[in-house]
Amino acid sequence: VPGRGLRGAPLSEIARQNGPGGFSVAARLGDIDLGTGTRADAPDRRLVRINGASASAVTLAEWVSALWLTPAMDRLFLEGASERRRFLDRLVLALVPGHASHASRYEAAMRQRNRLLGDDAPADPDWLAALEAQMASHGMALAEARAEVVAALSERLRLQPDGPFARASLALEGWTASADFLDQLRLNRSRDAAAGRALIGPHRVDLLVTHLAKDQAAALCSTGEQKALLLGIILAHAALIAHRTGRPPILLLDEVAAHLDPMRRAALFEQLRTTGGQVWMTGTEAALFAEAGARAMRLVVQDGQVKV
User: Fold this and answer.
1) Do 274 and 91 touch, CB atoms closer than 8 A?
2) Fewer C-beta neighbours within 10 Å, C or N terminus of the chain?
3) Rounded Cα gap, residues 292 and 234, in angstroms
4) DSSP string of the chain?
5) Is 40 exposed, middle or buried (0-12, 13-18, 19+ CB in 10 A)?
6) Are the beta carbons of 15 and 38 closer than 8 angstroms?
7) 280-300 pLDDT, tens digit each
8) Which among 54, 56, 40 has a CA at the least distance from the CA of 3?
9) Architecture of domain 75-245
10) Domain assignments of the chain as residue spans, ordered by start
11) Do 39 and 22 form a contact (C-beta atoms < 8 A)?
Protein backbone atom coordinates (compact mmCIF):
# COMPACT_ATOMS: atom_id res chain seq x y z
CA VAL A 1 0.00 0.00 0.00
CA PRO A 2 1.13 3.63 -0.35
CA GLY A 3 2.85 5.26 2.60
CA ARG A 4 5.07 3.83 5.33
CA GLY A 5 2.79 1.09 6.55
CA LEU A 6 1.80 0.03 10.02
CA ARG A 7 5.16 0.60 11.74
CA GLY A 8 6.07 3.80 9.94
CA ALA A 9 9.45 2.32 9.05
CA PRO A 10 11.54 3.85 6.25
CA LEU A 11 12.09 1.61 3.25
CA SER A 12 15.77 1.13 4.07
CA GLU A 13 14.82 -0.71 7.29
CA ILE A 14 12.54 -3.24 5.61
CA ALA A 15 15.27 -5.17 3.79
CA ARG A 16 16.81 -8.07 5.71
CA GLN A 17 19.49 -6.97 8.14
CA ASN A 18 22.99 -8.10 7.18
CA GLY A 19 21.57 -9.24 3.85
CA PRO A 20 22.47 -8.20 0.30
CA GLY A 21 20.09 -5.22 0.48
CA GLY A 22 16.80 -4.50 -1.20
CA PHE A 23 13.57 -6.47 -0.98
CA SER A 24 10.61 -7.31 -3.16
CA VAL A 25 7.01 -8.42 -2.70
CA ALA A 26 4.84 -9.72 -5.52
CA ALA A 27 1.25 -10.86 -5.85
CA ARG A 28 -1.14 -11.93 -8.56
CA LEU A 29 -4.70 -10.65 -8.19
CA GLY A 30 -6.84 -12.26 -10.86
CA ASP A 31 -5.09 -11.33 -14.08
CA ILE A 32 -3.14 -8.44 -12.53
CA ASP A 33 0.50 -8.85 -11.48
CA LEU A 34 1.65 -6.47 -8.75
CA GLY A 35 5.17 -6.00 -7.47
CA THR A 36 6.94 -3.55 -5.18
CA GLY A 37 10.30 -3.28 -3.45
CA THR A 38 13.66 -1.55 -3.43
CA ARG A 39 17.11 -2.08 -4.90
CA ALA A 40 20.30 -2.37 -2.86
CA ASP A 41 21.80 0.68 -4.57
CA ALA A 42 18.70 2.82 -3.83
CA PRO A 43 17.29 1.55 -0.51
CA ASP A 44 15.01 4.55 0.06
CA ARG A 45 13.40 4.59 -3.37
CA ARG A 46 10.30 2.47 -3.75
CA LEU A 47 9.75 0.70 -7.05
CA VAL A 48 6.30 -0.41 -8.19
CA ARG A 49 5.36 -2.52 -11.20
CA ILE A 50 1.89 -3.39 -12.43
CA ASN A 51 1.79 -6.04 -15.14
CA GLY A 52 5.49 -5.42 -15.67
CA ALA A 53 5.16 -1.66 -16.21
CA SER A 54 6.57 0.92 -13.81
CA ALA A 55 3.93 2.74 -11.76
CA SER A 56 3.62 5.06 -8.77
CA ALA A 57 3.03 3.79 -5.25
CA VAL A 58 -0.33 5.58 -5.21
CA THR A 59 -1.45 3.40 -8.11
CA LEU A 60 -1.23 0.33 -5.87
CA ALA A 61 -4.23 1.60 -3.92
CA GLU A 62 -6.35 1.16 -7.04
CA TRP A 63 -5.76 -2.60 -6.89
CA VAL A 64 -5.22 -3.56 -3.27
CA SER A 65 -5.80 -2.02 0.15
CA ALA A 66 -4.80 -3.06 3.64
CA LEU A 67 -6.10 -2.10 7.07
CA TRP A 68 -4.45 -2.85 10.37
CA LEU A 69 -5.01 -2.70 14.08
CA THR A 70 -2.05 -2.95 16.46
CA PRO A 71 -1.50 -2.42 20.20
CA ALA A 72 0.31 0.83 19.38
CA MET A 73 -3.03 2.25 18.20
CA ASP A 74 -4.70 1.68 21.58
CA ARG A 75 -3.89 5.26 22.62
CA LEU A 76 -5.40 6.80 19.51
CA PHE A 77 -8.18 8.53 21.44
CA LEU A 78 -5.75 9.88 24.06
CA GLU A 79 -3.02 11.12 21.70
CA GLY A 80 -2.95 14.48 19.97
CA ALA A 81 -5.07 15.35 16.95
CA SER A 82 -2.22 14.65 14.52
CA GLU A 83 -2.37 10.91 15.28
CA ARG A 84 -6.11 10.81 14.63
CA ARG A 85 -5.65 12.76 11.38
CA ARG A 86 -3.05 10.22 10.29
CA PHE A 87 -5.45 7.39 11.15
CA LEU A 88 -8.28 9.12 9.28
CA ASP A 89 -6.15 9.70 6.20
CA ARG A 90 -5.28 5.99 6.07
CA LEU A 91 -9.01 5.23 6.04
CA VAL A 92 -9.59 7.76 3.27
CA LEU A 93 -6.65 6.55 1.19
CA ALA A 94 -8.16 3.08 0.94
CA LEU A 95 -11.15 4.61 -0.88
CA VAL A 96 -9.57 7.65 -2.56
CA PRO A 97 -6.15 6.67 -3.98
CA GLY A 98 -5.25 10.27 -4.85
CA HIS A 99 -5.69 11.41 -1.25
CA ALA A 100 -2.02 10.90 -0.36
CA SER A 101 -0.93 13.09 -3.25
CA HIS A 102 -3.21 15.93 -2.14
CA ALA A 103 -1.93 15.60 1.43
CA SER A 104 1.76 15.74 0.50
CA ARG A 105 1.30 18.67 -1.90
CA TYR A 106 -0.77 20.62 0.61
CA GLU A 107 1.85 20.12 3.32
CA ALA A 108 4.70 21.06 0.97
CA ALA A 109 2.96 24.30 -0.06
CA MET A 110 2.14 25.10 3.57
CA ARG A 111 5.76 24.62 4.67
CA GLN A 112 7.00 26.92 1.92
CA ARG A 113 4.40 29.55 2.85
CA ASN A 114 5.41 29.33 6.52
CA ARG A 115 9.04 29.92 5.57
CA LEU A 116 8.16 32.91 3.40
CA LEU A 117 6.03 34.48 6.11
CA GLY A 118 8.77 33.85 8.67
CA ASP A 119 11.53 35.57 6.68
CA ASP A 120 12.67 39.01 7.81
CA ALA A 121 12.41 40.34 4.26
CA PRO A 122 8.94 40.98 2.80
CA ALA A 123 7.61 37.93 0.97
CA ASP A 124 7.10 37.98 -2.79
CA PRO A 125 3.31 38.49 -3.10
CA ASP A 126 3.09 36.50 -6.33
CA TRP A 127 4.91 33.55 -4.79
CA LEU A 128 2.71 33.71 -1.71
CA ALA A 129 -0.42 33.82 -3.87
CA ALA A 130 0.75 30.80 -5.87
CA LEU A 131 1.45 28.78 -2.72
CA GLU A 132 -1.91 29.73 -1.23
CA ALA A 133 -3.64 28.69 -4.43
CA GLN A 134 -2.00 25.27 -4.10
CA MET A 135 -3.02 25.04 -0.45
CA ALA A 136 -6.60 25.95 -1.30
CA SER A 137 -6.84 23.47 -4.18
CA HIS A 138 -5.29 20.49 -2.40
CA GLY A 139 -6.71 21.46 0.98
CA MET A 140 -10.29 21.49 -0.28
CA ALA A 141 -9.74 18.10 -1.95
CA LEU A 142 -8.45 16.75 1.38
CA ALA A 143 -11.39 18.18 3.29
CA GLU A 144 -14.01 16.89 0.86
CA ALA A 145 -12.60 13.35 0.81
CA ARG A 146 -12.33 13.22 4.60
CA ALA A 147 -15.86 14.52 5.10
CA GLU A 148 -17.34 12.07 2.60
CA VAL A 149 -15.61 9.02 4.08
CA VAL A 150 -16.43 10.02 7.66
CA ALA A 151 -20.09 10.50 6.74
CA ALA A 152 -20.29 7.16 4.93
CA LEU A 153 -18.48 5.26 7.67
CA SER A 154 -20.51 6.87 10.44
CA GLU A 155 -23.75 6.01 8.65
CA ARG A 156 -22.67 2.40 8.20
CA LEU A 157 -21.86 2.16 11.90
CA ARG A 158 -25.17 3.78 12.85
CA LEU A 159 -27.18 1.27 10.83
CA GLN A 160 -25.39 -1.76 12.24
CA PRO A 161 -27.45 -3.87 14.65
CA ASP A 162 -26.33 -4.00 18.26
CA GLY A 163 -23.73 -6.71 18.70
CA PRO A 164 -20.68 -7.70 20.72
CA PHE A 165 -18.61 -4.72 19.54
CA ALA A 166 -19.21 -1.09 20.48
CA ARG A 167 -20.50 1.16 17.71
CA ALA A 168 -18.90 4.54 17.15
CA SER A 169 -20.17 7.82 15.81
CA LEU A 170 -17.63 9.83 13.80
CA ALA A 171 -17.42 13.55 13.16
CA LEU A 172 -14.85 16.16 12.20
CA GLU A 173 -14.04 19.21 14.30
CA GLY A 174 -11.43 21.94 14.51
CA TRP A 175 -11.82 23.47 11.05
CA THR A 176 -14.68 23.68 8.59
CA ALA A 177 -13.94 23.84 4.88
CA SER A 178 -15.47 26.73 2.98
CA ALA A 179 -15.35 27.98 -0.58
CA ASP A 180 -13.47 31.12 0.49
CA PHE A 181 -10.51 29.19 1.93
CA LEU A 182 -8.15 30.93 -0.49
CA ASP A 183 -9.35 34.36 0.67
CA GLN A 184 -9.04 33.26 4.30
CA LEU A 185 -5.41 32.31 3.75
CA ARG A 186 -4.66 35.70 2.23
CA LEU A 187 -6.38 37.57 5.05
CA ASN A 188 -4.62 35.46 7.69
CA ARG A 189 -1.07 36.18 6.55
CA SER A 190 -0.27 38.54 9.44
CA ARG A 191 -1.69 36.20 12.08
CA ASP A 192 0.09 33.20 10.57
CA ALA A 193 3.38 35.10 10.38
CA ALA A 194 3.11 36.04 14.06
CA ALA A 195 2.24 32.48 15.05
CA GLY A 196 4.92 30.92 12.86
CA ARG A 197 2.41 28.49 11.37
CA ALA A 198 -0.85 28.34 9.42
CA LEU A 199 -3.75 28.69 11.85
CA ILE A 200 -6.48 27.50 9.49
CA GLY A 201 -6.77 24.60 7.08
CA PRO A 202 -7.31 20.84 6.97
CA HIS A 203 -4.16 20.31 9.06
CA ARG A 204 -6.19 21.66 12.01
CA VAL A 205 -8.92 19.03 11.76
CA ASP A 206 -9.51 16.44 14.47
CA LEU A 207 -11.50 13.20 14.29
CA LEU A 208 -14.14 13.11 17.02
CA VAL A 209 -15.23 9.58 18.01
CA THR A 210 -18.21 8.97 20.28
CA HIS A 211 -19.50 5.75 21.86
CA LEU A 212 -22.91 5.64 20.18
CA ALA A 213 -24.81 3.66 22.81
CA LYS A 214 -23.47 5.73 25.72
CA ASP A 215 -23.23 9.08 23.90
CA GLN A 216 -19.79 9.44 25.43
CA ALA A 217 -16.57 10.72 23.87
CA ALA A 218 -14.14 7.89 23.17
CA ALA A 219 -11.45 9.68 25.18
CA LEU A 220 -13.63 9.28 28.29
CA CYS A 221 -14.42 5.59 27.71
CA SER A 222 -12.68 2.72 29.44
CA THR A 223 -9.65 1.09 27.85
CA GLY A 224 -11.74 -1.93 26.90
CA GLU A 225 -14.41 0.25 25.31
CA GLN A 226 -11.79 2.19 23.36
CA LYS A 227 -10.35 -1.04 21.97
CA ALA A 228 -13.86 -2.19 21.01
CA LEU A 229 -14.65 1.14 19.33
CA LEU A 230 -11.45 1.01 17.30
CA LEU A 231 -12.08 -2.58 16.26
CA GLY A 232 -15.63 -1.69 15.24
CA ILE A 233 -14.38 1.19 13.09
CA ILE A 234 -11.83 -1.02 11.31
CA LEU A 235 -14.38 -3.76 10.62
CA ALA A 236 -16.97 -1.27 9.35
CA HIS A 237 -14.37 0.38 7.14
CA ALA A 238 -13.37 -2.99 5.68
CA ALA A 239 -17.02 -3.62 4.82
CA LEU A 240 -17.30 -0.16 3.25
CA ILE A 241 -14.24 -0.78 1.07
CA ALA A 242 -15.57 -4.14 -0.08
CA HIS A 243 -18.96 -2.60 -0.87
CA ARG A 244 -17.55 0.31 -2.87
CA THR A 245 -14.66 -1.32 -4.70
CA GLY A 246 -15.73 -4.94 -4.88
CA ARG A 247 -12.33 -5.83 -3.37
CA PRO A 248 -12.25 -6.66 0.34
CA PRO A 249 -9.09 -5.28 1.95
CA ILE A 250 -6.34 -7.31 3.56
CA LEU A 251 -6.76 -7.11 7.33
CA LEU A 252 -3.78 -7.22 9.71
CA LEU A 253 -4.90 -7.61 13.33
CA ASP A 254 -2.13 -7.78 15.93
CA GLU A 255 -3.00 -9.09 19.42
CA VAL A 256 -6.68 -8.25 18.93
CA ALA A 257 -8.03 -11.59 20.18
CA ALA A 258 -6.13 -11.29 23.47
CA HIS A 259 -8.47 -8.56 24.69
CA LEU A 260 -11.73 -10.39 23.95
CA ASP A 261 -13.63 -13.00 25.93
CA PRO A 262 -14.43 -16.33 24.17
CA MET A 263 -17.89 -15.14 23.08
CA ARG A 264 -16.56 -11.98 21.47
CA ARG A 265 -13.65 -13.86 19.91
CA ALA A 266 -16.09 -16.27 18.28
CA ALA A 267 -18.18 -13.33 17.04
CA LEU A 268 -15.06 -11.65 15.67
CA PHE A 269 -13.91 -14.74 13.79
CA GLU A 270 -17.38 -15.17 12.30
CA GLN A 271 -17.48 -11.55 11.17
CA LEU A 272 -14.02 -11.83 9.65
CA ARG A 273 -15.07 -14.98 7.80
CA THR A 274 -17.90 -13.09 6.10
CA THR A 275 -15.65 -10.27 4.85
CA GLY A 276 -14.40 -12.45 2.01
CA GLY A 277 -10.91 -11.02 2.29
CA GLN A 278 -7.57 -12.23 3.58
CA VAL A 279 -7.06 -11.77 7.32
CA TRP A 280 -3.78 -12.07 9.21
CA MET A 281 -3.98 -12.26 13.01
CA THR A 282 -1.13 -12.55 15.49
CA GLY A 283 -1.02 -13.64 19.11
CA THR A 284 1.27 -15.27 21.63
CA GLU A 285 -1.09 -18.06 22.71
CA ALA A 286 -2.63 -20.72 20.48
CA ALA A 287 -5.74 -20.82 22.70
CA LEU A 288 -6.69 -17.33 21.53
CA PHE A 289 -7.54 -18.75 18.11
CA ALA A 290 -9.47 -21.82 19.23
CA GLU A 291 -12.80 -20.27 18.19
CA ALA A 292 -11.50 -19.78 14.64
CA GLY A 293 -12.00 -23.49 14.02
CA ALA A 294 -10.56 -25.58 11.22
CA ARG A 295 -11.09 -22.95 8.54
CA ALA A 296 -8.12 -20.91 9.80
CA MET A 297 -4.51 -21.71 8.91
CA ARG A 298 -2.21 -21.55 11.91
CA LEU A 299 1.43 -20.56 11.51
CA VAL A 300 3.92 -20.82 14.37
CA VAL A 301 6.94 -18.50 14.38
CA GLN A 302 9.76 -19.84 16.51
CA ASP A 303 13.52 -19.32 16.44
CA GLY A 304 13.26 -17.33 13.24
CA GLN A 305 11.35 -20.04 11.38
CA VAL A 306 7.72 -20.34 10.32
CA LYS A 307 5.98 -23.69 10.72
CA VAL A 308 2.48 -24.75 9.70
Assistant:
1) no
2) C
3) 19
4) --SSTTTT--GGGTSPTTSSS-EEEEEEETTEEEEEEEETTEEEEEEEEETTEEE-HHHHTTT--EEEE-GGGGGTTTS-HHHHHHHHHHHHHTT-TTHHHHHHHHHHHHHHHHHHHHSSSPPPHHHHHHHHHHHHHHHHHHHHHHHHHHHHHHHHHHHSPP-SS--EEEEEES----TTHHHHHHHTHHHHHHHTS--SSGGG-EEEEEETTTTEEGGGS-HHHHHHHHHHHHHHHHHHHHHHHS-PPEEEEES-GGGS-HHHHHHHHHHHHHH-S-EEEE-S-GGGGGGGGGGS---EEETTEEE-
5) exposed
6) yes
7) 999 988 888 888 888 889 999
8) 56
9) Up-down Bundle (1.20)
10) 1-63, 75-245
11) yes
Q: Are 68 and 74 spatial neighbours (Cβ–Cβ below 8 Å)?
A: no
Q: Angle of helix 125-159 relative to helix 99-118, nearest 10 degrees?
A: 140
Distance from C-alpha of 285 to C-alpha of 283, rounded to nearest angstrom: 6
pTM of the entire predicted model: 0.89
* Core vs surface per residue 251-264: b (16+ CB within 10 A) or e: bbbbebbebbeeeb
pLDDT per residue as tens digits for the range 205-237: 999 999 999 999 999 999 989 999 999 999 999
Residue type present at position 249 = P
Q: Are 198 and 190 in contact (CB under 8 A)?
A: no
Closest CA to 104 of 129, 69, 71, 141: 141
